[in-house]
Amino acid sequence: MENEFKFINQKEIYQYKFYMIPKELFVNERYTSLSPAEILLYGILLDRLTLSIKNNWIDKNGNVYLIFTRLRLMNQKIYDLTIQIINVLIKLNTIHGTMKMEDITVKNF
């Protein structure tokens, strides 16, 4: 009976990790203009905030933010979605006056 169970190895661990997406985005009329892909992107950005905290990416007001290069956003095929959800769920800022890097502040609704 002991041999019937398979143990989870390091390559399988991510099958038990999940993105949390606020139900509010699906039921509140305020967000009906968002596509499912945009809502999923928001969930991914929320998940990335834990990495931001580890990197101490916190502004002077205590807001946690993400840093992405535009190239990375485009490579991840999320740049267009990012542009669509600006002012609804996120705030996009150019860092240090450059057009090469942006920080993303995820809004709390």
Quick synopsis:
By secondary structure, the protein is of the alpha+beta class.
Number of separate strands: 3
What Rg, in angstroms, do the CA atoms define? 17 Å
The ordered H/E elements are HHEHHEE
- Poorly predicted segments: none
**Residue share in helices?**
25-40%
What strand line-up does the widest sheet have?
Answer: 1-3-2
Q: What amount of the residues lies in strands?
A: 5-15%
Q: How many helices in DSSP terms?
A: 4
Coarse structural class: alpha+beta
Distance between the termini: 50 Å
Silhouette? globular
In round numbers, the mean pLDDT is: 76
Largest sheet: 3 strands, antiparallel
Features:
single chain, 109 residues, alpha+beta, three-stranded antiparallel sheet, 4 helices, 33% helix
Topology readout:
Layout: H1 24-27, H2 36-54, E1 65-69, H3 70-75, H4 79-85, E2 90-94, E3 101-106
